[in-house]
Every structure is written in structure tokens, then in C-alpha cells.
Amino acid sequence: MAQKMLKFISVDKKMPSKREAEARVEDFDEIYQEFSQDLATEQAARCSQCGIPFCQVHCPLSNNIPDWLRMTAEGRLEEAYELSSATNNMPEICGRICPQDRLCEGNCVIEKGFDSVTIGTVEKYITETAWKEGWVKPPTPAAELGQSVGIIGGGPAGLAAAEEMRRAGYEVHVYDRYDRMGGLLIYGIPSFKLEKEVVERRTNLLAEGGVVYHTNFEVGKGATLADLRERHDAVLIATGVYNTRDVQLPGAGLNNTVQAIDYLTVSNKVGMGDTIAEFQSGDLDAKGKNIVVIGGGDTAMDCVRTAIRQGAKSVKCLYRRDRANMPGSLREVNNAEEEGVEFVWLTAPEAFIGDEDVTAVRAVKMRLGSPDASGRQTPKVIEGSAHNIKADLVIKALGFDPDDIPSLFDAPELGVSRWGTVQIDHRSMMTNIDGVFAAGDIVRGAALVVWAVRDGRDAAQRMDRYLTQKRSGMERQFQAAE
Ligand code: FAD
Ligand code: SF4
Ligand code: SF4
Q: Which helix (H) or strand (E) holds 261?
């Protein structure tokens, strides 16, 4: 039933129901249920239709949120879907995993005192309805343009670019070193946040539209960047960041101290039915073990919640600052606590203890000192506070840096920043190699899915412009304009 807008005063914020913690730790299924139609229209109608919608300003895709909320409230779901999918290649994915509290919802003007509109959940509801109703279509072009694009990396940046380029009429080839497309959507983010069928539904749709996938194809092994540049009229580097940060502490070489991405990748593979030796042997299985996860970001949250689901005996998360200062989403911390994770705030590892296998983490207590240049309080060690925390498996979730792409791709001329991210001209999104573009985490550093989608879309637009100009023999003009 169509609803009048501006209902935030009379209607409270409601989220779709969340499965009970005891039930959800038994499996890897998503924890939130779907909105019913009545609840979705009612919640969408809470929007006050701001003249300057701060929700939209703070959405990296500048989604036209007030309009699709109004259409949902009026029961015009197909139009709402048309509008939301016009700016986002993966609305049902962003609706599930964007940290909305830091983006659209955190900037909703009615948040203060009334609780924000549940934007992400409505976005997911609109697109799930579109899938059920058959409104989501493969990217089929009106005409073939006769030029081809090679995309290195099938994560959200590469896939968003692939969809846009295919729709425009290019032949699109996506190369990925993994056996499945999706990047961190498949092998990083666990199913309890994003079920794999949701990602595969998207990758299959692109294949239906004619995007060609080359799995188990690692650029740098067998083919160089120059090889791909020769094969295609333009190339996009969208390889993400996978060089894991480490702690250089005594005992760092002990068995059973592992990197978060290795642990999560194996867990995701096992969840999809693969047989993985490191899991079969128990090395990367938390079952029956005391687990210590080091770090306070979203990757750490994914590790602790995965360990709980694998049947760990205990799961502790060590973070050197406090709850208020952690980088991870508070929603995820709350979910983890409900599921039985213990957060050990203001605590940092000092050494890993054990003979061959790790048996404990020696940790020290911290206090927060004065703010540094970035405004964050610097943690300081409290002398004499060292203590041991029992651990059978230590998972390090300390963040990621870019790999050395120029060496890996045998392209020493490729320009990178001092942090190793691939440098682009921000207007053309082209690297210093003609016809080679870059997008996503490999340009930005570790970021978010929604930013990767934004970058992939922007890169597609710039590649289209570059190739159009090439087609019409205007290459020289392009260079002058840039
Ligand atoms: P990726 O998703 O990393 O994809 C890059 C692809 O390139 C990969 O498939 C890789 O195999 C491929 N590749 C790399 N090198 C080569 C090569 N040489 N040859 C061929 N292929 C190659 N963001 C959110 O918004 N919400 C979340 O809840 C969230 N949770 C996260 C949880 C974890 C554990 C991690 C690690 C990240 C999370 N993120 C989250 C961040 C988000 O996943 C990334 O910002 C996003 O996936 C980046 O997209 P991308 O396309 O740039 O790179
Ligand atoms: Fe909010 Fe993300 Fe959707 Fe933008 S894409 S409206 S930030 S949930
Ligand atoms: Fe609606 Fe909130 Fe966006 Fe305003 S800021 S348009 S109330 S969702």
C-alpha cells in the first residue's frame, strides 16, 4: 500500500529481524532476514525528502536515495530498481555490506534523535525484488563496437567496469588468478555477511551478457602487462591489495600464527564445497581451539566470527585502542559480542610463546596518550602489565598493502606511489602507460566495495572516452586535452 512520506516522527526505525545468536553461530548463512513489503514501504516512508540529501552526498555512488525511497513507499518498485541500478552495479551487495553507519545512514538528517532511515536494507529489498521479478537483465549492447578491453582482476572494481564496458558494446575479457570471479566478495568477505550465491548471481549475469572470464590466469605468470596490452585496445588493472602487514615480534615464526586473508580464503573455499588440505589437516580450522585474533578492523571482525562458527573453544580479539577508537564497524562488533567473542581492548601483543607451535600470546596493556597529527590518540604501553593469553591459533589481521605490481607484471615503467599503489591521472584514470587504466583498491589502498564499484564505473567511462576517440582517429586530440 502506498505510504505518505515524512513518517519519521510517527514510525520508529525498524531493521529486518536478526537471527538469534545461538542459531546463527551454527551455520554461515546471512544473519538478517528480508524486509517484508509492508515493512519496506513503511520504513522508506520515514524519509523526509530533504532538499539537500546528505545521505546521497555521503554515498560514494551518489545514489539517488530520496527518490528511490519515495518510489518504494509508493509501491513503484520497478521504477525504484531502475533508478537505484542506474548508479550502482551491485545494489543488493552494497545494501548488505556497506558500513552504512559511516556513509549514507550515518549522515541522514533525521538520525539525530529519531534514528536514520534504513537505507541499505531498503536498497537490498528493492534489488532482491527485482531479481525475483526478472527485472535484472544481462548487459547486452545495442551494437558491437569492434574493440576489446582486458580487465585484470575480477573483484568489484573489475566487474563494475566489465559490466559498463560490455553494455557500451566492447568485447570484455576479465582475467583473474583465482578459480572463481568476485575477488574479496568471494574469497574475503564471509557468507554470514554476504552469501556466495548473491555474488555468483551477478558474475553469471555478466557472463550471460557476453563478458568472457579467464580464471586461473595470473598476470605476471605466463603473461605480462605488455602481452595483455597487445591483445586488447585498453587494459584495466584492478588487482586489489594483498600484501599483508605483519608484526615483527619474538616468536613470529612459530607454527599456527597465520594471516587473516589465508584463514578467510580457506574458510570461504570450504564453505563452497572445495577440499582444502590446510583445513583437512586442522591447521586452518578453529574447531576446539583457543583463538586469538590481532587487529580491530573489519577483517578482524570477520575472522573472530568465522572462528566462532567453526566451533572454537574460545575467541579473543586483541586491539591496542578502545572500542570508541576501533576502525571496524560497531555493528559488526556488536554482532561478534552477541555470538560469544571476547574483545580485549587496550591490549597489544608483545611476543608469541611456544616451542614449535604457538601456545600463548604475551600481551601488554595500553593506555591512550595525546592525539597524533591525525587526531587519534596514540596508545602507550603500561609498564609491568605483561601477561600471557592462551592461544592454539593466532590470526593476524593488521591490514594490507599493495604488491609490487611493476615487478610482478614485468612492467618496471609503470608508475606507482611511495606506498606502492598504482598511480593514475585522476581525470583520465590512465596510468603512465598509454591505454592502461587502473581502479579499485590497487589505486586507493584498502577501501570498501562501494568505492571499488565507483572506481570501476568511472574507469569504464574514461576507457570508453579513450576508445571512442581512438575509433574516430582523435587520439592526438585526447592526449592534448589530457
Ligand atoms: P579485490 O576485491 O581484491 O579483487 C581483486 C582481484 O584481482 C582478485 O580476485 C584477485 O585474485 C585478482 N588479482 C590480483 N592479482 C592478480 C594477477 N596478477 N592476475 C590476475 N588476477 C589478479 N568492504 C566493504 O565495503 N564491506 C565489507 O564488509 C568488507 N569486508 C571486508 C572483509 C575482508 C576480510 C576484506 C579483506 C575486505 C573487506 N572489504 C569490505 C573491503 C573490500 O572487499 C575491498 O575494498 C574491495 O573488494 C576491493 O575491490 P577490488 O576490485 O579493488 O579488489
Ligand atoms: Fe548507502 Fe552503500 Fe547504498 Fe550508497 S551504496 S546508499 S552508501 S548502502
Ligand atoms: Fe531521507 Fe535521510 Fe536522505 Fe533526508 S538524509 S533524504 S531523511 S534518507
A: helix 260-271
